[in-house]
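During the no-cost extension, the postdoctoral fellow (Dr. R.K.) reprocessed legacy sequence entries with the updated structure-token encoder. One reprocessed record is reproduced below for audit purposes.
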Amino acid sequence: MQAYIKGDLPADFYTDQPSLSSFESQRRLKSQSYPARHRKVLKEALVEQYSAHGLSDKRVDANIQRLDHENTFTVCTGHQLNIFTGPLFFIYKVLHTIRLSQLLTKQFPDMHCVPVYWMASEDHDYEEINHIHLGQVKLKWNTEQKGAVGAFSVEGLQEVIQAIEELLPNTPEAKTIIDLFREAYQDSVKLSSAMFHLVHELFKQYGLVVIDPNQKALKKLFEPVMRRELEASFAQPLVDKTSENLAALGYGSQVNAREINLFYLEEGSRERIVRLKEGFGLSDSSKTFTEEELLAILKDAPERFSPNVVLRPLYQETILPNLAYIGGGGELSYSMQLKAVFDSTSTPFPLFVLRNSVFWMSAKEHRKMGALQAEFKDFIRSKDAFVNSVIRRISDISIDFTPQREQLKEQFLALKEVAKMTDKSFLGAVSAQEHKQIKGLDHLEKRLLKAQKRKLQDEVKRLSRLYDILYPMGIPHERFENFSLLYAKLGPALFDMLLEAFGNEVSHGKLHLMVSENL
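Re-encoded structure tokens follow.
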């Protein structure tokens, strides 16, 4: 990801860096490849989904209707159906998507950009979505259900909501969010319906469109690609070749393609389709199909087929007039393995934008940070490295032996020249002595730092407490805490504060420190 953001990664693995000019180019590519028929199917599918959920908002409805127009495009983010939205970075992904859509609509007056949240309703990784953290408390949803999580009943989540209510402060904003949770996670509602409702209510004022891709009409648009995958297993060799090219540059793989990159969906199960000597089978059952049988099911019931991580981005770009995807480092890294798959289907590879990251701190804690001469950039490292860097800064004596090391190296350079002129066999002994003395300086520097930390033990404790605020349980705040605790203190202003902080740049996300008197 660092190489990609810096522009050091060869362009074979992506389309372009996010910029106004690249968005203009991407818009032209998408216009040429995205059929008008897909727009009609997409709009009708969304109208049907919102109607089925009984949800409506004039700003969202207007964006859905605009999707039928050739000058309307989308910016998308996707995420699993974590209960109550999961960790904070989900909120950041959605708000970054909204912000980029606003900026593009403003920069290109003849174009309208719609922010879209793609629900991963077909995912089956229950362990990833079944818990949240509030403060130091982990709240977990226990259920024995299997298969695609979007089809799970929300039975048992009312008890989790009760636990959330007991942990949140007694504020009007806390009551608002608890009421919304209760409304969204009504008994007998499916998890996908609950998430659809929750995200709609949280972000409808910004015109965010929520899409559940697990719908027959949408899967029908992807049927040709799924048919090709079943008949020819086209994706695996393309991904494997790209992964080899990345490995040659020193980069590991995030995903491994399979011979068949599709799952088969039935009630209570989502199983991998595997190729047999004759026909197909399912990875975890004895059910088998002839090729003719499976292709007939695909034609009549494409909703039974679910793309895995390799084909899911291609499915997304097939049904959306999409320009860019906003995701985290892991998401974008595995996307770099997929460009050849897109190229083979003549589907434009979207622009990939690294999401914004955010840390939160109260104004009181921020003042303590200043008093300790700690800087925000100091926190972007391990706890020991953070404490050491600040102690070096506030110590009344220098704990940096760099000048001594440089002086020592100069002296040994002179000794090496003497050795070359007299006896070259002596050169190895000189180098060994240099290594020994520099290592000795390193050891002395560490001892001096350790002594200063004992002397400044009060400052060390205060620094450790500050670090733990940004890294609860040693985990970055955005990957740990649920948004409801912040919302209970800041209310709807939380989202507006973040949108303003995200600024007016069409570029990769940045790392932000948010400070508030109300925390």
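The radius of gyration is 27 Å. DSSP finds 23 helices and 14 strands in the chain. The remaining legacy entries will be reprocessed before the final report is submitted.
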